[in-house]
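Researcher: Re-running this chain for the archive, since the previous output was lost when a drive failed. Same request as before.
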Amino acid sequence: MDASSVRDGCSAVVDEVAAAVIADREFLETVLVGFLADGHVLLEDVPGTGKTLTARSVATALGLEFSRVQFTPDLLPTDVLGTHVFNERSREFEFRPGPVFANVVLADEINRAPPKTQAALLEAMEEGQVTIDGETMALPEPFFVIATQNPVDQEGTFPLPEAQLDRFVVSAAIGYPDAAGERELLARRASRDARSPTVDAVLDDERVRALRRASEDVRGGSDLREYMVAVARATREHPRVEVGVSPRGTQRLFEAARARAVVAGREYVVPADVKGLAGSVLAHRLVLTPDAAVENVAKGGIVEGVLDEVPVPTVDAA
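Model: Regenerated structure tokens:
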């Protein structure tokens, strides 16, 4: 697919999702970037803002199989991955796959499950496979996790460890709609009988795979790569940061920037791609110093400060 065809495909997906979800277009594009970058997305926002609807709508618009896991304190790893069940008729154990065996998996309120269950997703998110009773099984291709958590109600929750947070390419928040958006929400509800809006598939399996491959052809020059490295290293030297962005985070920033260029219909990365995504890609990977944590220093603010300090390269589109 050429750049214009890729851009049109991405735009069609975002348009279809935007017809169902009242959200900023940049937010929807960020979720799509997570998918195109062959990664996963963490949505952190209060209940009722449309996180679940966003996940389901993205899966449907892409024409992919969708499953949802409601994480609770009593959820077991086998409830997510699946288990072997004894078949009385055949007198043999047979595997019954869990909800993780889908193209798009919504891990709803992931921080409400105990660490053992959260860790069950680690191999799936990083390797695209799971190991059950010593047997390794491949997950469907593509495989994309959208996890949600409520940042306000933390009682009885289990914070995600840094190793798992590092597996998410981007972390984003929908936020409350403005007054016009909320009026539009009611107008859409008044014009249909069902509570939830319907979404149609706008891509087939072949085009989805082509979109994901497209970012591998996007050019990111050495000056831009140096810029990304400088930004990542600056987070490690920040006085308010105890643990900065890992090398994996630097690589994810590069992959996300290329995916953002794909969404924009370009075959090359520009500094605006890096700056536009740096907060979503890097902020959740930072571990603040105890003093900064007590003072509720915003991780996103630290990333913005780093971006202001690191010189931006001049890039020739040619």
